[in-house]
Amino acid sequence: MNAPVPDPRPVLNETHTVPRRSSPIALEILDEALERRLTGGELTLLFEEAALHDLGRTATELRLRRSDPDVVTYVVDRNVTYTNVCYVDCEFCAFNRHKGDGDEYWLSLDEIKAKVQSVIDAGGRQILLQGGHHPNEKIEAYEAMLSELKAEFPDLWIHGFSPNEVQHFAKVSKLSTLDVLKRLRAAGLDSIPGGGAEILNERVRSIIAPKKTTAREWIEINEEAHYLGIPTTATMMFAHIETYPERVEHLLRLRESQDKTKGYTAFIPWTFQPGNTPLAKIPELMEQVEFRGYLGATDYLRTLAIARIALDNFCNIQASWVTQGKSVGQLTLGYGANDLGSTMMEESVVSAAGTTHALTQGDLNEMIRGAGYTPAQRDNGYNVLKVIEA
Fold first, then answer.
1. Is there a contact between 377 and 75 (Cβ–Cβ < 8 Å)?
2. What is the rounded CA–CA span in Å between residue 291 and residue 293?
3. pTM value?
4. Where are the domains of the chain?
């Protein structure tokens, strides 16, 4: 009789439960976290054996040490998604379109300038400029986009073009990624968003985003940017097919890279939103997503707190109220976050998956004051522009 074939899928959490009380060793590790850097094994154990309230207590203490203890920041800006044409076809994305789909677009410079003007009128001076991987547009199109925006809005901070876009521009234009970065910087790029990191593990990336950068390439492009003096952020999209050790691998890769360059300004984690995505239509993958059972906000807050604990060389940890909503967004300030991101005057990618939370600057001020902090407006370099008094 043949032996049964083992299930190749990773076990995400064998107990399917979240601990109500921390194990003795988890408590010991949390105490150690206040004095030293934790190992990957210790961080994995915290995912498995630390209670949420204990994680929050340690993360808050470390947040108070690593960033301004009195202030929580945010930026007034707008996401400007210049195109939805993209042939990368990530399994988690509900946003991308191919040419001929009927609802694809490429924004004109006049349309982009009108969006920038709306930010200026709202008291901001930054935009997040990102788009899909258009198969035909070469580096000259993106240089023109940057230089014309800078010519009309010389004080505008352009936070644009993820590492994956940089790699795509290089392939289409037959350039190195370093050359692309040099040209984008010369045209007016100020900083780079850390989108496309997903989970920095090759098993996961080969399933959900096989046409994107590898984990190594994503890190290398960020480090090239840092070498040129271009700061970047780093993200993590989790709660899909990854395991806890793979989340920890992601954090350790970022920590190691930050040790080398000091070029990351913030870490921003958010949860996978399955609505309308290709992944949601693949039963064997959705079974892995659903394997945990519903952990919801507790999983988000646990991961946020462990990120604050793990990333001892990151000052800023940004909360994702865009995926979590206002109430959980405020709770993040008790689990290691010191920044509430953006007023998000426009957002296209998460909303395409059916998740829509809209907050005003007044909402963010209210959330911050209600958590016992003082709100402050910053730029995309995480420099405080204005403390907002009551």
1. yes
2. 6
3. 0.88
4. 41-387
3-state secondary structure of 50: coil
CB count, 10 Å around CB of 148? 16
- What average pLDDT does the segment 240-245 reach? 91
As a whole number of angstroms, the distance between CA 224 and CA 261 comes to 9
| Token digits of residue 280 | 């949601």
Both structure tokens of 202: 């090759």
Amino acid at 176: S
Q: What is the β-pairing status of strands 77-81 and 71-75? A: unpaired
Contact at 8 Å (CB) between 230 and 183?
no
The half-sphere exposure of 13 on its side-chain side, counting CA atoms within 13 A, is 24
- At 21, list the tokens: 């009380």
If we measure between CA atoms, which residue out of 273, 280, 278 comes closest to residue 347?
Answer: 273
- Spatial distance between the Cα atoms of 258 and 154, rounded to a whole number of angstroms: 30
* 6-64 pLDDT, tens digit each: 344 444 444 456 788 999 999 999 999 999 999 999 999 999 999 999 999 999 999 99
Question: What are the helix (H) ranges across the chain?
Answer: 24-33, 40-49, 52-66, 109-121, 139-152, 163-173, 177-187, 202-208, 215-227, 244-261, 283-290, 296-310, 321-331, 349-352, 361-370
Alpha-carbon distance of 58 to 383, in angstroms, equals 26
Tell me, what amino acid is at 182?
A: K
Of the candidates 295, 296, 303, 314, the one whose C-alpha atom is nearest the C-alpha of residue 355 is: 296
> Between β-strands 374-378 and 384-387, what pairing exists: parallel, antiparallel or unpaired?
antiparallel
Fold held by 41-387:
TIM Barrel (3.20.20)
3-state secondary structure 243-307: CHHHHHHHHHHHHHHHHHHCCEEEEEEEECCCCCCCHHHCHHHHHHHHCCCCCHHHHHHHHHHHH
Amino acid at 108: S
